[in-house]
């Protein structure tokens, strides 16, 4: 009997499926916010160690990041593959982005690829990265800055949403904190002695609203006043705003950033306040690889008999990796119910048996795409060529 590479992938993932379901439920039922994913990180590290893999903890100075490395039994002189697992939850709604499923799909692809390399005697290395804080500061960006991914030829991760896609072009996203510093005074006895930082925050919010008229249809700006003063009878000496701007392309993000910074500065000028802008994190757009994406979509379509979805919004820190590395960010349909991400309904579906089944199929699909890169030299050449072309065309925006 001839066993195909796809059979090796399916066998490795099916064997682990029951364990992965337990991990997924444990992570889902103990939602932890960005950089506080201690239990999820521990569960995943412990599972990998119980399977005989070595795991490095505290990667890039992040206490909830990890990296596990496997060297093929045929040697390390081949492709270097990396998978990402996420496991942070959202404030208030728990796993409303299904990162419990991202966690286990990363593990599943890692197990399958190590099995393929070992069984089929294909040289190379495989890494699984535990990447925290996707919903907040972007753990992958910190890890990227520390050179954690530097030796990888191909990076891959999966994400649940409504519909599937191998060609997600995510939005760029810059998150900022703006602070205004004024002077407190009694709001009735001597308001003329004060410098109103609360007013500066209000002007900034209104001016950002006015700026929207001149923005491109796919640009987004949204924010909240996080501190507008302490008491109604005191002129506020301090105020703060959290603001996010999004564009389709990295070059456009710079344009919108400069216009936004002028708005925040103008509010300080108008009120006599001083101000400080802290740029908290910037997610760049996800550059898809058409060759990897097409194979991913072909396999998904053979299962679901519906076309891929292309217009999915949102941002990811994986985008920053895609700008440098050959990569695939594969989307899979959560449970066929079309509920949107970041809702309580999504949280509920993310622990369903159907969502697990679909995450497992997506992981098999992702691992099959990687296996094709390992065994088909021509295919890998096409993947590399597509990456170069994509990098050139995105620079034109
Ligand atoms: Zn999310
Ligand atoms: Zn997410």
UniProtKB/TrEMBL annotation:
InterPro entries: Amidohydrolase (IPR017439), Bact_exopeptidase_dim_dom (IPR036264), Peptidase_M20 (IPR002933), Peptidase_M20/M20A_hydrolases (IPR052030), Peptidase_M20_dimer (IPR011650), Xaa-Arg_dipeptidase (IPR017144)
Ranges in coiled-coil conformation: none
Protein name (record): Peptidase M20 domain-containing protein 2
Gene Ontology terms for molecular function: dipeptidase activity
Domain Peptidase M20 dimerisation: 174-267
Family indicated by similarity: Belongs to the peptidase M20A family.
Highest taxon listed in the record's lineage: Eukaryota
Residues in the signal sequence: none
SUPFAM superfamilies, per database record: Bacterial exopeptidase dimerisation domain (SSF55031), Zn-dependent exopeptidases (SSF53187)
PANTHER family xrefs: PEPTIDASE M20, XAA-ARG DIPEPTIDASE
